[in-house]
From TrEMBL:
UniProt GO BP: DNA repair
Origin species: Paenibacillus yonginensis
Any GO CC annotation of this UniProt entry: cytosol
Phylogenetic lineage: Bacteria, Bacillati, Bacillota, Bacilli, Bacillales
Pfam families according to UniProt: Hydrolase
Superkingdom of origin: Bacteria
PANTHER family per record: PHOSPHOGLYCOLATE PHOSPHATASE
Identification of the protein by name: Haloacid dehalogenase
Any GO MF annotation of the entry: phosphoglycolate phosphatase activity
Segments crossing the lipid bilayer: none
Amino acid sequence: METSRQLTKPQAIVFDMDGTLFKTETLLIPAYHNVFNQLREEGLYTGETPPEHLMLGSLGMLLEDIWKTVMPHEQVHVHRRADELLLKFELQGLQEATSELYPSVPETLQELHNRGVKLFVASNGLEHYVKGVADVHQIAPLFDGLYSAGEYATLSKVDLLRRLMEDHGLERIWMVGDRSSDVEAGRKNGQTVIGCAYAGFGKEDELKGSDVLITDFSQLLTLYEQAEK
């Protein structure tokens, strides 16, 4: 764990979902291949499935930007069909109970909740996906709100986090995430950023600008205990 300054206890902690709470690849990779199999069956896509690293490296982006990276030469209607199929196959995968949260996530969230910390999710994912992950893994009751770009039609996580803070009258939060979009959201809203350096999906400087880097989710408890009131 690396920290650049003394932290202050927040009114709430806001979490990204993919690569922060949820071990995304345990659900995403099978769904990703199913999407392209279906697109080929429907005559909307030809050729081989794009490399998995293109999808994993795009996590944290809005879906429309992900498909521009993964299949940049396809038309918009193919991208929107891919949206529908990805959600369908991910929800199916969740029901099969093969996906995973990162180690210590349920216990750490429960402990923070027990201490009266307000907890939220702010994700660039689709509404039913974000809520589905939280429901299936039985962490939904610990949160005061599950915010997604899919539900609120925000153009960036900066806007989504601002909306969340305004809705709940929050002035001092910790933004916890694994991507540059999380760092940007926290920074542009004037908040503390906790970078999660355990997923490994992003570039080397993905979390540049974070106030703290953690290598295990449970380290959040130590940070909270040591933070000034």
